[in-house]
Amino acid sequence: MIRVNCLHTNTAIIHDFCVLPAIQGRGYGREILSRVVKLLQSQEYSQIRLSVVTQNRRALSLYQSIGFDASSKSLYYVIPINNI
Predict the structure, then answer these.
(1) How many other C-beta atoms lie within 10 A of the C-beta of residue 49?
(2) pLDDT at position 30, please?
(3) What is the pLDDT of residue 51?
(4) Which among 45, 51, 46, 43 is positioned nearest to 14, based on CA atoms?
(5) What is the separation of C-alpha 7 from the centre of its chain, rounded to a whole number of angstroms?
(6) How many Cα atoms are found within 13 Å in the side-chain-facing hemisphere of 13?
(7) How far apart are CA 26 and CA 46, in angstroms?
(8) CA-to-CA distance for 46 and 81, rounded, in angstroms?
């Protein structure tokens, strides 16, 4: 699954990119992401962004191999629901 949103006329954001665990490691993720990036470039998007959990080393490696660079990091705050 992959979802792409347009933020501005020249910026696309990739959200919710995932490959079923049963078929991970077969190159499908790289192929999907490469094709989506090429499609967005052909539609004249000059900036493509995505987000990833920094502990997800496999995803980070994939994104970097396609050409993405880390530009910023975000901290997320979590609270168990029973503490609310």
Answers:
(1) 15
(2) 94
(3) 83
(4) 51
(5) 15
(6) 8
(7) 29
(8) 40
The three-class DSSP label of residue 83 is helix
**Residue spans of the chain under pLDDT 70:** none
* 3-8: strand order across its sheet: 3-8, 11-15, 47-50
> Which residue has tokens 């190159």?
27
Residues in the chain: 84
Q: What is the spatial distance between Cα 49 and Cα 14, in angstroms, rounded to a whole number?
A: 6
Residue 63 is predicted with a pLDDT of: 92
What type of residue sits at position 60? Answer: L
Picking from 57, 43, 61, 62, the residue whose alpha carbon sits closest to that of residue 4 is 43
Lookup result for tokens 């077969």: 26
Which residue matches tokens 């995932």? 18
- Using CB atoms within 10 Å of the CB of residue 4, give its burial: 0 to 12 exposed, 13 to 18 middle, 19+ buried: middle
